[in-house]
Amino acid sequence: MITTPYVDRATKKVILTVAKKLKDGSGVVAADLYISDIQKLTEQVKIGKKGYAALLDKDRNYIVHPTAESGSKATESIIDLIYQVEVGHFPYELNGESKEMTFASNELTGWKIVGVMFSSEVDDAASKILHATLFVLLGALLAGAVVIYFVTKAIMKPIRELK
């Protein structure tokens, strides 16, 4: 069993509890996980410049998200899509910004692991590669034209001398 995030009375910190009944039924083993620790790990994940990682539980509550509070319900319509399949990738628009979302499900916990990247960052990176490629292509065409000119001139010189 994994609880949704809640505020621990003793520490006043947001935690979630992972618990498992012992095989012989004599008790339970449980561990509390601080959401702040999970948040720190998630913040270390870099997806482009502005992209981010997020975690949602099986009940569509945010565990970790850069702008949503832990334990709050994910109400965005885009969230419906990630609960329809186990793994996926799709583009979407939110608040006027185009984004790319990739996600996977954890079988054991039912959590959704989500990565979001802004489409503008993908476009910017592709644009830089395109410009570099076009520059190299233009340089190669110019170099080829110069080589063709001199080779043609060298071939034509003896032919002109025969006249």
From TrEMBL:
Residues 4-115 form the Cache domain. Keywords: Cell membrane, Membrane, Transmembrane, Transmembrane helix. It comes from the Bacteria. The keyword Transmembrane helix applies. CDD domains: PDC1_HK_sensor (cd18773), PDC2_MCP_like (cd12912). The chain crosses the membrane at residues 129-151. One of its GO terms (cellular component) is plasma membrane. The keyword Transmembrane helix applies. InterPro entries: dCache_1, Sensor-like_sf. It is a multi-pass membrane protein. It holds the Pfam family dCache_1. It is found in: Cell membrane. This is Cache domain-containing protein.
